[in-house]
Model the fold of this input.
Amino acid sequence: MNTKVLSRRRFLTLSASGPFAASLASGLTAGLMSRSAAAEDGAPKKLSKGVIIGMLPRDLSDAEKFQLAKRCGFEGIEASPLDSLDAARRQGELARQIGTPIHSVLFGWWPPFTDTSAATIDECLKKMTNALQCAQAMQAGAVLLVPTRVTENFRYADAYKRSQDYIRRLIPVAEETRVVIAVENVWNKFLLSPLEFARYIDEFESPWVRAYFDVGNVIIYGFSQDWIRTLGKRIARIHLKDFQRNGYQWKNLLEGDVNWPEVRKSLDEIGYAGWLTAELSGGSEQALTDIAGRMDRIIAGSFG
Done:
């Protein structure tokens, strides 16, 4: 048994649930987060605009998609895992040549939500391992992961423990590939407060597990700027979208209930300089250009 008066793990647990939570990002965890940032040699030193590859027209070749993204004003791509690492390398090289480097890979929802069979878990770990290796081949710095969900028959405590157990098994792969496992907040009835999200990340005690914060996903039960200020340096990537509480509907950027002036201010307060990636329907060149323009306004803090 650890005989220290207050272990690091105990300190993080207590402070994440008590009055010291606001200081966590600039305190004990800052060193871990800064070490993971060193892995992303190609990370931007400013707020940069990304687009999910699925928002680009599906009938275009990769080269045409990346050219369109650049023409519309985007600076980088969030790609998907590929079955072939050689194909991933080629896609990453092509994106860089065109001027829209792949900055992250969207693995998405973690399949073994409630299925605890060893075969299912092993298969999903293999798929996530492939996603991390694809990101390395593409020279991307992060893989987005939705770690679990809570259901009527799958308890919150089980979702919490099992998802952490699975992710811990992937940390050696993240270390080897130098790619961050970026856990995203979604509508999965899990990590419902910024304090809990911060504690969840801290408990890994690894710079290779961080947060992929989605600005729009918290609007039904919170305020984006509060989450940003609490998560602080834990944030590796950010998704941008907007939501309107009245009518319960997704909206274009700057048209919902996200407090964009405060969001922009909070990003400066935590010193975030990285990728902001749109997560909307996308489509035509006109629609994509409009989205990129709205992102320019957010970055510039122009809300008049």
In short: The longest strand covers residues 102-109. The chain has one domain: 8-300. The mean pLDDT is 89. Residues 156-177 form the longest helix (22 residues).
